[in-house]
Amino acid sequence: MQTLLIVEDEKLIRKGIAAMASRSPVHIDEILECRNGEEAMKILRSRKIDTVFMDIRMPKMDGLELARQMETLEEKPDVVVISGYDDFNYAVEMLKHGVFDYVLKPVKRETIEDLLVNLEKKQQKNITKAKKEIQLLYHQIKFMQESNMTRGDMDNAQKQYREIYGDEEYVLICAPQRSGFSEENFQGVFLENVQGQNLFLLPVRYFEEWSKQTQIRCFGVSSSQANFYQCSQACNEARDARVDAFIKCRPMVRFSECSEYTPSEAELKDMEQFVEQFVRQISTKNRDTALRRFEGMYFEARHGRRSPVDVLKMTENIQKMMTDVYQTLIPEDKKGLLKYESPFNFEDAEAFMTEFKTWIGQIVGCLSDEFVSDQNKRKIREAVDYIHENYYKDLNMAQVSNYVSMNYSLFSLAFKEYTGVNFVNYLKNMRIREAKRLLVETDLKITDISHKVGYENDKHFMKIFKNICGVSPSDYRKNQL
């Protein structure tokens, strides 16, 4: 049991019930106390409570009125009345409002223990039933995305949805598969790796709170839907919104905010021709020109001057053609470099672009031994020194490669060859090392440390820190004391 709320105006009785509950065989994560119905409703409206033990006669708002008001809650707790009044009418009235049990004072320890054991069984049974229902709905949604559902299948899925969520409206959320996600306390259905993305079905009433708390970035949100028959449409909307979020590097995009750009035939023809042009130029002195134009198309899509969907298709065509064209030109032991990831697997376009340039550099590097020259090694050493001196600034690989006068793609490959990791991870690791030092050696706030090591967004900093160190910055600091 997660939470127990004790509503009783007499302090000694309230404390006594709390003590008996805490010593019972049922583990309770948190026991809350308050003096009357008004205080109780403030708590109940602000958070989910599993169980309420309450008196009837209390000032400001008595138990009867509290029971009536609790019926308006979206998530109703199990309620036990503990009263000094042996009045049949009171008991009947309370039972009308869905009270689990009515117990007379003075209450014994054994009675409290029995109540909690029975309530725990009931709640666990409800949780198990809900999990089974959600699991069934999960398979139905995934099946719908991967094949054509019959009308009968849709009817069954709609029935299943209503059994779990009633008439509630929901949204579909499409997020990058790499995003960290915990199913703990999630109030919807989580579908992992549906066509390379994670999908979430979530009742609308939970969405705002979830969107504020989630660490997931660059996700798309469908319009709200009233029944399961619109689920396929919602999935498509969420995916379109996710494409927009990916290209524009925005934390969240709703379907209603999506770009409505329609390309002309000439634009589509131009993008088709650019695929072949890019692959041809990438191994010549025009490589940087090709990369700049490629980045320019992403820039245009980000600012509504190209279709995000078409830019993604163009990218996938470039990747496929690169593999086909250079398959015979790369040494056998280097052919593994030709493997690539779909751009949509990355959180956003910036993360993909960094990896894409590195990938291009590796392929080009295999066509020449130039990247292992002593001159380039000296330049990489100079670059590493520059990073050490400027890691706290808004630094990227283009700036550093320009600083040492080295081709971007060549720099990317030579840097990884020299350091063992790519530029992004090298900079990230350096920043986190310095953050760890500041956490141990100073009393600076975590927000200030984030800024000192080059992260303007402290939430982003905390996510990266936990991914690398396995614990949050605050927990790391505590562990070092």
Plain-language structure description:
The chain has 481 residues and is of the alpha/beta class. The protein has 4 domains: 3-107, Response regulator (Rossmann fold, 3-Layer(aba) Sandwich); 127-257, Alpha-Beta Plaits (2-Layer Sandwich), CATH 3.30.70; 262-367, no CATH class; 426-480, Arc Repressor Mutant, subunit A, CATH 1.10.10.60. It is 57% helix and 10% strand. It has a 5-stranded parallel sheet, with helices on both faces. Helix 2 runs parallel beside helix 3 (63-70) and helix 9 (265-281) runs parallel beside helix 11 (308-326). The chain is elongated. The model has no long low-confidence stretch (mean pLDDT 84). It is found in: Cytoplasm. Residues 381-479 form the HTH araC/xylS-type domain. This is Stage 0 sporulation protein A homolog. It holds the Pfam family Response_reg.
Quick description:
The chain has 481 residues and is of the alpha/beta class.
Break the fold down into its secondary structure elements and pairings.
Layout: E1 3-7, H1 11-22, E2 30-34, H2 37-46, E3 51-54, H3 63-70, E4 78-83, H4 88-96, E5 101-104, H5 109-146, H6 151-165, E6 170-176, E7 189-194, E8 197-203, H7 204-213, E9 219-221, H8 231-248, E10 252-254, H9 265-281, H10 287-302, H11 308-326, H12 349-366, H13 374-390, H14 397-403, H15 408-419, H16 423-441, H17 446-452, H18 458-469, H19 473-480
